[in-house]
């Protein structure tokens, strides 16, 4: 937390579902000068749907001087390719290093639709999957060699894959890994249909894995209130045996924890108007943040009392219930008035806050507005036309509170090939959501 301030961030930018027949690309943004550094790094294929990224090395490789954080791992949610990007030679001008083709992943693992990337202490790279090559749900894990980036095989044992997959986080001190569920790729590929939830094509479970044996030990069913559990975060303290997961459909956050018996359980600790998407925890484990992508707000909770989070800050940055829009709120359990549209540097913000990344010192929260191109097109068609944006929020770390930096805006609507959808944010040196602590 006392390290140097962030200077650049990497963002995957997506053209799938925008009508622009150009490949997705990796953008490098200078957050001090507030501009997108050219040239961009385009992928060599169309319609990949770059989504989340990760590193070939993180703090779980601590003590091994041969491991360097010099490659950014870029899985493609739809094409199932994995791009390995060289960020070590010149951090401000990333270059393509290697491409792992989908057929290699299909044949060697039986998995598809890669999502979350974490490095392992062994130096290998592990990527969670959403499905199988036919578009059915399948929550397994792809292993890549940390030096050659060849597909090694599956992390999970044969027959142990979960029904659905999405995010994961591990805690080596406690020999445990937790994974979550989104839905079957064939259901979510082009939009959200509530009937698919009723048909069982979306998940509602947290899966508990033995980190040493790779066996699936428990599946915690969160029920209707916990439908579509997405981002999962252990506390950063490696001694902690608890964390939080954001559940999209009903707007809930569950705390998961190890019981005195040694097994794991979960309890609902936050409930807001839906749709919760991204969550993160500050490095000192004091604040939890999440974006409410349908509603339009970002929330900051003080989690000093782990079982009773306290709302410390809230900020609307767009969303679907703006007071000049077509939606009229008839009943709000929080008794808030409909928010006005947000304008920064003369631009009305399209879409809604989604992906979050916090500065290491906890004082700056970066936000982008794209969730996933198929859902962006469905819920915020104006963002498809105008492109997404990146914003910076000033955080009061003493007492809590959020305030927009009115001088910071990166507009992805002005890209050379047309408006793009910018998604997840990564720092070259690691961040609150990429590193596992030992």
From TrEMBL:
Any one GO CC term of the record: cytosol
Keyword Cytoplasm (UniProt): yes
Topology versus the membrane: Peripheral membrane protein
Catalysed transformations (reactions): methanethiol + O2 + H2O = hydrogen sulfide + formaldehyde + H2O2 + H(+)
UniProt GO BP: protein transport
GO MF terms held by the record: methanethiol oxidase activity; selenium binding
Pathway as given in its UniProt record: Organosulfur degradation
Main location (coarse class): nucleus
Keywords assigned by UniProt, alphabetized: Acetylation, Cytoplasm, Membrane, Nucleus, Oxidoreductase, Protein transport, Selenium, Transport
Pfam families found in the cross-reference section: SBP56
Gene3D superfamilies: YVTN repeat-like/Quinoprotein amine dehydrogenase
Subcellular location as annotated: Nucleus; Cytoplasm, Cytosol; Membrane
Family note: Belongs to the selenium-binding protein family.
Function description: Catalyzes the oxidation of methanethiol, an organosulfur compound known to be produced in substantial amounts by gut bacteria. Selenium-binding protein which may be involved in the sensing of reactive xenobiotics in the cytoplasm. May be involved in intra-Golgi protein transport.
Protein name, entry field: Methanethiol oxidase
Species this protein is from: Salmo trutta (Brown trout)
Gene giving rise to this polypeptide: SELENBP1
């Amino acid at each position: 937390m006392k390290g140097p301030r962030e200077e650049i961030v990497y963002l995957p930018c997506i053209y799938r579902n925008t009508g622009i027949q150009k490949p997705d690309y990796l953008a490098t943004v200078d957050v001090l000068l507030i501009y997108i550094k050219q040239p961009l790094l385009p992928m060599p294929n169309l319609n990949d749907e770059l989504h989340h990224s990760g590193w070939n090395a993180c703090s779980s490789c601590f003590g091994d001087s041969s491991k360097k954080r010099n490659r950014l791992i870029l899985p493609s949610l739809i094409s199932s390719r994995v791009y390995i990007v060289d960020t070590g030679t010149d951090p401000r001008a990333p270059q393509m290093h290697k491409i792992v083709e989908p057929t290699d992943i299909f044949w060697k693992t039986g998995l598809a639709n890669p999502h979350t990337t974490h490095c392992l202490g062994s130096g290998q790279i592990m990527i969670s999957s959403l499905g199988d090559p036919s578009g059915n749900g399948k929550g397994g894990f792809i292993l890549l060699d940390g030096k050659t980036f060849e597909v090694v095989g599956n992390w999970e044992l044969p027959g142990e894959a979960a029904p659905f997959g999405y995010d994961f986080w591990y805690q080596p001190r406690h020999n445990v890994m937790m994974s979550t569920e989104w839905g079957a790729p064939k259901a979510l590929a082009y939009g959200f249909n509530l009937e698919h939830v009723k048909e069982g094509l979306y998940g509602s479970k947290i899966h508990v894995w033995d980190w040493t044996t790779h066996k699936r030990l428990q599946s915690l069913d969160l029920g209707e209130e916990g439908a579509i559990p997405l981002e999962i975060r252990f506390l950063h303290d490696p001694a902690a045996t608890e964390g939080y997961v954001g559940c999209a459909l009903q707007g809930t956050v569950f705390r998961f924890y190890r019981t005195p018996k040694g097994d794991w359980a979960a309890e609902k600790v936050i409930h807001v108007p839906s749709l919760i998407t991204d969550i993160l925890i500050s490095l000192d484990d004091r604040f939890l943040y999440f974006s409410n992508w349908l509603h339009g707000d970002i929330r900051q909770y003080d989690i000093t009392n782990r079982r009773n989070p306290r709302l410390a800050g809230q900020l609307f940055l767009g969303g679907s219930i703006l007071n000049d829009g077509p939606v009229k709120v008839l009943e709000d359990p929080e008794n808030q008035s409909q928010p006005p549209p947000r304008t920064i540097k003369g631009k009305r913000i399209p879409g809604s806050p989604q992906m979050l990344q916090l500065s290491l010192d906890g004082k700056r929260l970066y936000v982008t507005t794209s969730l996933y191109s198929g859902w962006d097109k469905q819920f915020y068609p104006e963002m498809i036309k105008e492109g997404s944006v990146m914003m910076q929020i000033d955080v009061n770390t003493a007492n809590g509170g959020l305030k927009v930096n009115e001088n910071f805006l990166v507009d992805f609507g002005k890209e050379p090939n047309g408006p793009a959808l910018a998604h997840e944010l990564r720092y070259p040196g690691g961040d609150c959501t990429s590193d596992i602590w030992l």
